[in-house]
Write a structure and sequence with these properties.
The protein has about 350 residues and is an all-alpha fold. Helix content is about 75%, strand content about 0%. It contains 16 helices and no strands.
């Protein structure tokens, strides 16, 4: 009898020691164990003196219920807030930069495998596009080639990066559905993968503007303002990740949104000063371009490529969009992160 009471007390003490966080359950287990021990002591029931089947059944059921309660209370799942999980996902995604950089590079490599030029087919196609469009539109707008060619090449390089990122981010999660359902990786890793892939393509396309610097060296020069391209690309990358998470969440839940956004991007191309300069607008209409965020994003890259500094209003607009997007991204990612896998 003393041995049984000692074993029960030892189990209760061990549970209390290892489960300090759940005091209510530990107290319930201790009370149950004490009642069981008191029943055995007060009624002087043990396996040797048990004479009836009812006594055996009563004690056996009491012991089994106590052991089952102990086994059930051994499994306690800690409560973790969704905000903490969202932060950990974003931080882990940044820490695993080797993975998404390797995957981004592999995407480009596999797209042009067994070809002679390889990834430089991207550069060649971009060169054909911008050189032909520059020659055509310079005559349509009656602008000198020395002024329009550098402008349109820098504009198309910037627009190509932004538009491709927006379009591909609509499938940020749905495109990698099989991987998400099989391998546990941060959701933000897939967004970094898309943004990095397009950034690598942008650097490939930078070779297109090299002949422009050589031919039109009098109108376009590399100077100190050209270095502003680095912080400009950094801001573009941060915004690509922020708004990429938002677009991927919305388009994973509502699949029609991806097609709507792709159609809108074609309209935005003509509403944004890509092929035309904002100075052609009347002064009363130029202020409306501030409400077009794509104009500010393009200027963060186009101005340094042309050897100019971005306007202060464009920098302020991009910083404001980054701050607002970060707040919306964290809010949505905190709420809907756990539902992503069920939407795929």
């Amino acid at each position: 009898m003393e041995f049984m009471r000692g074993a029960i007390s030892l189990r209760a003490n061990r549970f209390v020691r290892h489960r300090d966080k759940n005091k209510k359950q530990a107290r319930l287990f201790s009370i149950t164990s004490s009642c069981y021990s008191h029943a055995l002591t007060s009624q002087h029931i043990n396996y040797k003196t048990m004479s009836t089947e009812a006594e055996l059944t009563a004690v056996s059921s009491l012991r089994n219920s106590t052991e089952n309660m102990a086994e059930q209370m051994d499994i306690i799942f800690p409560k973790v807030s969704q905000r903490q999980l969202a932060w950990e996902d974003i931080i882990d995604g940044c820490k695993k930069w080797r993975i998404w950089f390797m995957l981004a590079y592999q995407d480009i490599k596999l797209r042009y495998r067994r070809s002679i030029l390889g990834p430089f087919w991207i550069t060649l196609s971009m060169a054909i596009t911008v050189y032909s469009m520059g020659f055509l539109y310079s005559h349509l707008f009656h602008v000198e080639l020395s002024k329009y060619y550098p402008f349109v090449v820098a504009s198309m390089l910037s627009w190509s990066l932004i538009s491709t990122v927006v379009v591909e981010m609509t499938e940020g999660f749905s495109l990698y559905e099989s991987i998400i359902k099989q391998i546990k990786l941060p959701y933000s890793l897939y967004i970094h993968r898309i943004a990095t892939r397009n950034l690598i393509i942008f650097f490939h396309n930078m070779l297109v503007i090299v002949p422009i610097f050589i031919i039109f060296y009098a109108s376009v020069k590399i100077n100190f303002y050209t270095l502003l391209l680095i912080p400009g690309l950094a801001l573009i990358y941060v915004n690509a990740v922020i708004y990429g998470i938002i677009l991927s969440l919305v388009c994973a839940r509502f699949r029609d949104m991806a097609q709507i956004i792709k159609s809108l991007m074609q309209v935005i191309f003509f509403l944004t000063p890509v092929m035309w300069d904002v100075n052609v607008l009347p002064e009363s209409k130029r202020a409306l371009m501030i409400f077009n965020p794509f104009y500010s994003y393009i200027e963060m890259m186009r101005a340094p490529l042309l050897g100019k500094a971005p306007l202060l209003i464009n920098i302020e607009c991009v910083l404001l969009l980054t701050l607002v997007g970060a707040v919306i991204c964290l809010f949505m990612f905190k709420i809907y992160r756990s539902r992503i896998v069920y939407w795929l």
